[in-house]
Amino acid sequence: MLNNRPIGVFDSGIGGLTVVKNLMNILPNEDIIYFGDIARIPYGTKSRATIQKFAAQTAKFLIDQEVKVIIIACNTISAIAKDIVQEIAKTVPVIDVISAGVSLVDSLKTVGVIATPATINSNAYALQIHKNNPNTEVYSSSCGLFVSMIEEGFIEGEVVELVAKQYLEYFNDKNIQALILGCTHYPIIKESIAKILDVKLIDPSLQASKMLYSLLFDNKLLNRANSNPEYRFYVTDIPLKFRSVGEMFLQTQMQHLEIVSLDNY
């Protein structure tokens, strides 16, 4: 049955685990397959063509795992390669984190966005926000070091706050009403961000999980009978700190963690 199939989630690295954590809470009966392209991180500084190629390979891998839905837990891919992922997925629904984040700012007059250089350069957030509300002012800033910092296990403390302060100073005179955390890595350090910038923080990864619940419910795809869900984690490399940082964030063990190659995709 289709409702017994797993949910597929993918990102360039560890950041997409923010989505997995939310899914574990919101959809506790669902099997989840997570794919992290650790060997080729960060995506945010790579060319458009390279990002599209990597996204296509990952989408093909997840379809081979017979997932019932795909969440693009990467803002960079959402901005640059969502259409390619949907084309490969065919009838399998695809949810992306940018659409999820934008859905929460319709009534705001001024919004800030922090994201990777590729996401910021694509202008994806501003374009989608202005589709819904052309009068909303959008201020964007790329935070290139955040991803590498988090992947190395720096998720709190003085180093994180110093780097965050440097990036967030841009917003001091912008009078923004909310800040979109436009990379799924960023919620991992949201407490440090909140110390520096006293505004509402919007987490697209949480909203994407809520949107997925609605999609599965509406299409009768919820797995209600599974009392022992399986979580499988596939990566293209396992750095020294990946498991420890991932398990600390998920608050559970990564019992099935496997290295795979995308060379044949």
Automatic annotation (TrEMBL):
Protein name, UniProt field: Glutamate racemase
Molecular function terms from GO: glutamate racemase activity
EC id: 5.1.1.3
UniProt xrefs under PROSITE patterns: ASP_GLU_RACEMASE_2
Family designation: Belongs to the aspartate/glutamate racemases family.
Catalysed reactions listed for this entry: L-glutamate = D-glutamate
Keywords of the record: Cell shape, Cell wall biogenesis/degradation, Isomerase, Peptidoglycan synthesis
Lineage, uppermost ranks: Bacteria, Pseudomonadati, Pseudomonadota, Gammaproteobacteria, Thiotrichales
Active site: C74, C183
Coiled coil spans: none
UniProt KW Cytoplasm keyword: no
SUPFAM superfamilies: Aspartate/glutamate racemase (SSF53681)
Pathway involvement of the protein, from the record: Cell wall biogenesis; peptidoglycan biosynthesis
